[in-house]
Prior knowledge:
Chain A is an all-alpha fold. Chain A has 4 helices and no strands. Chain B is 69% helix and 2% strand. At the A-B interface, α2, α3 and α4 of A face α6, α18 and α19 of B.
Amino acid sequence: MLRGTGTALVTVSAVTVIVGGVASLLVFTDLQLFLAFGIWIAPVVVLIPFVYPADGERAYGLRTVVAALVLPAITSIWVVWLVLSHGVIGHHP
Amino acid sequence: MSEARARTSRSASPRAAAGIAAAGVAVLLVVSVGPPQRIFSRPNQGDVTEYFSYTQRTFEGELPYRDFSIEYPPGALPPLLAAGPADHGYYDRFRLLMLGLGAASIALLVAALFLAGAEAAEIASGVLVPATLPLTLNPGLVFERFDLWPVFLMLLAVVALLRGRQLLSLVALSIGAVAKLFPLALVPLVLLARRGHAHLRRDLALALAAGLSFLLPFGAIAPRGLGHVGALLVRRPLQSESLGASMLLASHRLGFYSPTIYYSIGRSWDLAGPAAKVVAVLSTLAEAAALVAVWVFFARSNRGSRELLLAVAAVVVGFVAFGKVFSTQYMVWVAFAVPLALGRVRPFALAATISALLLSLYDYDWGAFDLIAGGRTSWVMLARNLILVAVFGSLLLELHARGRVSAARADAGAAHAVASP
C-alpha cells in the first residue's frame, strides 16, 4: 500500500511540475517578466545537487526531487493564475 | 565543533567554495543592478525615506530618541547613519551599503556551509536562494530596509562559532539583537554548542557589554524615547500578514469572523478586537514553544556543525512563522537562514522557501490592498504561512532524528565498552 501511495505521489508530483512549468512558460511570454518573477529558481536549486553529485553518489533521488518541487509548482500555477486574473501581465510594477 | 570532524572526502574544496562565493556575489550584483530590477534607478519611497529623515535630523545635531521619536532600537542606527549625510545621494548610498552587506552575507553563508563539510553542489544550490532574492522578493524589501544588517551579524556569529570563536559569535549576536530581536533567540545555541565552560562568564559579560554599549547611552539621556521602542515591541497588535491573522482572515472568507483592520502604532496594518488579541497571545506562546523545542532538540543532539546549522535555520523560521508580527521583509532573514540546513530535508526546505518567497512577492506587489480588505489574498497569506510552518516542522524533525541517531550511537558505544572490558 505504501509503495502504491509513493507511486501515486510521484506521478501526481511529476504531472504538477510539468503543468506548472508549461503554464509558467506559456503565461510569461514576456521574457523580462518571467526572469523578474523568479519562478524558475526552485527547479534549478533542487536539481543542481541531483545533476552534479559529489563522487558520483547522489544525496537524494528523483522521488525527493519531484516531492520537493510539488510546492513550488503549485505555488507557481496559483500565482500565475492570480496575476492573470488581476490582469497585470506585462506590467511589472 | 572542529572543522576537521565535519569535513569528508565529498566536501567541497576551498577553491571550489571560493569560486561558488564569487559566483554567488556576481549573481546578486547582476540581478540587483542590471535589468529588470535596476535598484539604483528605483523611486525613493517606503521605509528608506524614514531612514533619510532620521539621518537628516541626526546630522543636524538632534539626538535620536530624545529630540525625535524613532521606532527602531539603537543597533539599527549604524547602517542608517552610515549612508549619511542626508543629501540627494543618501538613497543610493543606503542601497549600496545593503548590497555590500548582502554580498558579505553570501560569502559568510558559503563559509558556514564549507566549514560544515557541505558538497560543492549543495553550497551552489543554497547560495542561489539569497543571490536571486531580488527576483523572488520585491527589491525594495531587500535593499531599502536594513534587514541585511542583522542577517550579516547572524551569519558572522555562525561562522565565528564554527571556527571556535565563541566570544566573537556572542558579540555579533548581541549587536544583532539590539538591531532586530531575532538574533537573541540564537544565543542559547551558541552556549549549548560550547565544549566546556572555560571563560563562559567572561564571554557572556563582554557580549552583554557590547549590546549595552548601544542601549545605555540612549537609556541614560533619553529613557522615555528608548522605552517607547521597547513598549512598541511588546504592544504591537496582531499584524495582518502573520500566521494567526491569516487564519482569522481565512475564517472571514468562510464567513465565521468579521475582521477590523487598522493602521496601528507599529506603522503596519493590524487586526483589532478580542479575537485578534487572544490569537496574538497564542501566537507569542507558540513562538516561545517553537524556540524552546529547537533548543531542546539541539541540546539532545551531538551538537556538531550540521546540527548547529539546522538549529539556526529552525530558530529563524520558527521566530518568523509563529510571531504575531510578520513584516514581508522578514523573508530576507528566512532566505539567508534556510540554506544553512543540510541533510535529507534540504531539497524540500529550499524549494518550499522559494514558494513562500513567491507568495510574499505576490502579496506585496499585487495583493496588499486586497489583503487589508480581507479579500482572497487572505488565502495566499495563509498558504505562505503554512508553508513556513511546514519548513519549520521539517527542520525540527531532522534535528530530532539526528538527536536519536546520536543517542543510538552512544548506547552502542556503551554496550561495546561493557562487552569488551
